[in-house]
């Protein structure tokens, strides 16, 4: 939830708000600010995570990452529009989304694998075109992806705040995060698809049970959600960029308003839903989010760190950060089939300082 950001342009030029976010506290109540540690090494009884491998190097701004049932990874590159397949340490291009219009934060973003991929072979992508953001579908069986089919068009796009994360829920429906493109009014406009979390069928129709049966909108009042993760109790969590004060971790519940642009962080207003944890924007700028064994893992861009947040009885507590500044900007985190985490760097995205082998996909043992 967010407070209106009149300093949006200044913040963007400083790379401090549109694509950037916290640290460790002993017990963070909903809406309380996470407090940085001196070393970012934690201080809990959990073992410290370690980077144990680099699965791929020299990628071009990797954004989306998802696994097929056989353990093969599918990765999108934001600026090139390429779709990659990774087996072992081998990287191969399997498709090119020619409609991709990469500018600023826009481009080829999220990817999701159909829950019934073994029978339908479907991949889903969130892509920025010259006209809009849209969700598209393609079959993948063999060596190359099949023809692209748009299933939901007309999502507002812009130079910033394009959202872009896709995730299938336990209910079998596809959830998509959208941004408000820098036009904060869109977040509160129930007729706009910007600044929302959407819930649709595999054909792009509003999913049964949506608040408005004729609309794909599930929740609204979002600034720019780039992380979606379901826990083992089927709860949906979302990481969201703040403006100049607070980034957020939100528990997403049907038909809730998360407050942007009227509230940023914890507003304590009955009509808006408070976040569970907030971070100062220089500590997080959160993007990818993954759930593993009672914990959320959140990748941070401007904060250049990986966060671990304990989930206990539906409450997010004890955020702890790792790898502070060690690998630069971190975009996406996904749980691999072997239980390790795959984490992508985003140092070629126009706001980072690329090293010789960037961008990379790191393997982290939790």
What does this molecule look like?
- This protein has two helices and 25 strands.
- The protein has a single domain, classed as TolB, C-terminal domain (Neuraminidase), CATH 2.120.10.30.
- The chain is globular, with a radius of gyration of 18 Å.
- A five-stranded mixed β-sheet has the order 1-18-17-16-15, with no helix packed on it. Strands 2-25-24-23 form a four-stranded antiparallel β-sheet, with no helix packed on it.
- It has 366 residues and is an all-beta fold.
- The longest helix has 6 residues.
- 3% of the residues lie in helices and 39% in strands.
Overview in brief:
The protein has 366 residues and is mostly beta strands.
Question: What is the strand and helix layout of this fold?
Answer:
Elements: H1 8-13, E1 32-33, E2 50-56, E3 62-67, E4 73-77, E5 82-87, E6 90-96, E7 108-113, H2 117-120, E8 122-128, E9 133-139, E10 149-155, E11 166-168, E12 174-177, E13 196-200, E14 217-220, E15 225-230, E16 236-240, E17 246-252, E18 277-280, E19 286-292, E20 295-300, E21 305-312, E22 315-322, E23 330-335, E24 341-345, E25 361-365
């Amino acid at each position: 939830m967010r407070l209106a950001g009149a300093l949006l342009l200044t913040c963007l030029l400083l790379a401090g708000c549109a694509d950037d976010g916290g640290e460790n506290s002993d017990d963070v109540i909903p809406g309380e600010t996470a407090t940085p540690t001196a070393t970012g090494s934690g201080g809990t009884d959990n073992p410290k995570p370690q980077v144990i491998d680099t699965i791929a190097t020299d990628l071009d701004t990797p954004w989306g990452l998802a696994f097929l049932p056989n353990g093969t990874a599918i990765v999108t590159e934001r600026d090139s529009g390429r779709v990659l397949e990774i087996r072992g340490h081998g990287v191969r291009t399997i498709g090119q989304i020619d409609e991709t219009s990469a500018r600023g934060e826009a481009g080829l973003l999220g990817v999701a694998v159909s829950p019934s991929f073994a029978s339908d072979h479907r991949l889903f992508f969130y892509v920025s075109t010259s006209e809009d953001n849209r969700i598209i579908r393609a079959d993948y069986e063999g060596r190359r992806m099949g023809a692209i089919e748009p299933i939901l068009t007309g999502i507002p796009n812009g130079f910033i705040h394009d959202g872009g994360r896709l995730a299938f829920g336990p209910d079998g429906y596809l959830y998509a995060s959208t941004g408000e493109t820098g036009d904060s009014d869109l977040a509160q406009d129930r007729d706009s698809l910007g600044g929302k979390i959407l819930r649709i069928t595999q054909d792009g129709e509003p999913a049964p049970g949506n608040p408005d049966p004729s609309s794909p909108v599930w929740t609204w009042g979002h600034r720019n959600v780039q992380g979606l993760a379901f826990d083992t109790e089927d709860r949906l969590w979302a990481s969201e960029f703040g403006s100049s004060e607070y980034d957020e971790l939100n528990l997403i519940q049907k038909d809730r308003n998360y407050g942007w642009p009227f509230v940023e962080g914890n507003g304590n207003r009955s009509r808006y839903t408070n976040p569970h944890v907030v971070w100062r924007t220089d500590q997080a700028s959160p993007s990818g989010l993954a759930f593993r064994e009672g914990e959320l893992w959140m990748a941070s861009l401007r904060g250049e760190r990986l966060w671990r947040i304990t989930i206990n009885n539906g409450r997010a507590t004890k955020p702890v950060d790792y790898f502070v500044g060690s690998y630069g900007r971190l975009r996406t985190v996904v749980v691999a089939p072997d239980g390790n985490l795959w984490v992508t760097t985003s140092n070629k995205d126009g706001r980072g300082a690329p090293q010789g082998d960037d961008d990379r996909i790191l393997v982290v043992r939790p």
